[in-house]
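We modelled the chain as a single entity of 467 amino acids. Its sequence is:
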Amino acid sequence: MIDDFAPSGTPPMIGKMLTPAEWLDYIASYQFGPVMPNKVVLHHTWRPTVAQWQGMTSMQGMQHFFADKGWTAAPHCFAGPDGIWLFTPLREIGVHAGTGNGSFAKGWYTLGLEMVGDYDAARPTGKVWEHALAILGGMSLRLGIPPKQLIGFHRDYSTKTCPGKAVTVDWVIPEVEAWVKRTGKLPDMKVGAIGTADDDTVQLQKTLIANAWRMRGDEYDPLSPIHQMAVEQHLGVPIAKARQATFNNKTYTILPFARDTLFMEIPGWSRPGSMWQTIGDTIPADKTFERFLLDETLRIGGTGFRPENPFHLFLFANHDIGPPLAPAGMREINGQMYVFQVFAGDTIYVRGDDPTKVDWKKMAFLSDLGGVIDSVTVTLRDTLLSETYKLMKVTYDPKQQIHHLAREWALGAPIGPSTPIQIGTAQYTYQVYALDVLFSKAPNWSVVHRLGTALASARRKNPVGTL
């Protein structure tokens, strides 16, 4: 259910070449993760040129080039004169367009397509353009997004001319639209690519869900309306056990998750309520039901809602970070004092030496530093991550693949340490984060999977899009 060509090296590269027919067959059955790509950003390599291209040797050269730049990922595919080359797995965020790369936390990301060659003076032709059309048109069909909405250029996010001065929107879009019209649809999905998983896969998923929910919450119950809604809305794992609380002589079950708190009146058969949908955008007054929900949620971090607390004000402006999991702390980094606090969905930080006097409007998300490469900011990021893991009673190792990817994918606070399990004859190791569970299978420990990818793929069957 989650198989793909395995990448290797730094940044991880698949290094597999496909023909256009193989590419279309590949993406027809491809299982994207919890977040689907919303755009393909077109680039040109500039160097190497078509004449300089040497297939795998050139791909390895690009990998070394990206590694020297400190990149942790790369573009997703290359349209070469010899075929379609796969680099970063399609279900992962690549590095290719700066602010246009995307963010799982914000619910979007783009695919990076590099056309081999320099197209400042002339448009791509021949096999390079044939392969680029298969990628662009194939993804338009796969995602169900018309070419004019799907395709972007690197220069939309940069001062560069990329994908070349000669490559213009009024030429590319009609070309891709004509390809889509000629092709009509993708090949049928491969038998066994979707549908019912084998027994060991089902057992693995059930075990990971159960273990993740037990970390801080109650046993997972697929028949519970609250549990069902949390899974449907991707709210992450529970960060406390369900509890009952009374307001105005009515008793409620309240269960806080990494992204929201769900509640139900007892007894009751209605759909669970969402705390943030109930509260809206205005800080609730004392002794209101909305304030009651907010207080009950924030007590996980040791206190009810305090409007004078700058971190609480930041939370109110950024609902998705979830409740605090530990008190605010301070740390000197790079000669500056920082105040920080660990929330379920992210760690928030700001310069200062008093948690009660910092300006909440100047606070920042630690996850925004996931892909930085300059040494000063890397020190800031890794120090705050070390503090985050320490408060969650886990040791942070920036070289560990699971920790590296949890940082890149913005999965929030670690809820537990890396733990081995055995399913059938297979050995796995997994780690629970507030927003997902990461796991690897022996002997390929460096290949890390997301539980959310497997569950999302199974739920929606990753259908072929329709235009």
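As a brief sanity check on the tokenised model: The chain is about 30% helix and 20% strand. Residues 308 and 356 are 8 Å apart (CA to CA).
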